[in-house]
Amino acid sequence: QSRDIKVLTKLPGIGKKTAERLLLELKDKVGPVAAESGDSFGEAVAAGGSGAVAEAIEALASLGYSNSEIMPVIKKIEGAETKTSEEILKQALRLMMK
């Protein structure tokens, strides 16, 4: 619920990328709690409405980007809530390359 990667990485066999992946996969199960706590990831997913933002975030995370790298870029994309996940992903990757 607190989305604390440090706690997960203390578990044997769990590295940073695995912990981030676990958090992404479990977000649907604890999403409302995380969004209520003011979590920026929860806010971005909630703003996505159609789930396109969440899909783009998940795709970026699977490419190895951390949430601290992803979220500022997602917030810079204008009209992300009306775009497809592919459009968001392409624009996010362009912004990350700069």
Question: Please, could you describe this protein's structure?
Answer:
- The protein is mainly α.
- The chain has one domain.
- It has six helices and no strands.
- Helix 4 packs antiparallel against helix 5 and helix 5 crosses helix 6.
- The longest helix is centred in the first third of the chain and has 21 residues.
- It starts with a helix and ends with a helix.
Q: Average pLDDT across residues?
A: 75
Calculate the terminal CA-CA distance, rounded to whole Å. Answer: 33 Å
Number of domains: 1
Strand content: under 5%
SSE order: HHHHHH
User: Segments where pLDDT lies below 50 for 5+ residues?
Assistant: 31-41, 45-50
Percent of residues in helices: over 70%
Tally of DSSP β-strands = 0
Query: In one word, what is the shape?
Result: elongated
- What oligomeric state best describes the polypeptide chains here? single chain
The tally of helices reads 6
Main sheet attributes: strand count, strand direction, barrel closure? none
Give the class from helix and strand content and strand pairing.
Answer: mainly alpha
Radius of gyration: 13 Å
Summarize the structure.
The chain is mostly helical. The protein is 70% helix and 0% strand.
What layout of secondary structure does this protein have?
Layout: H1 5-9, H2 16-36, H3 40-48, H4 52-62, H5 67-76, H6 85-97
Features:
98 residues, mainly alpha
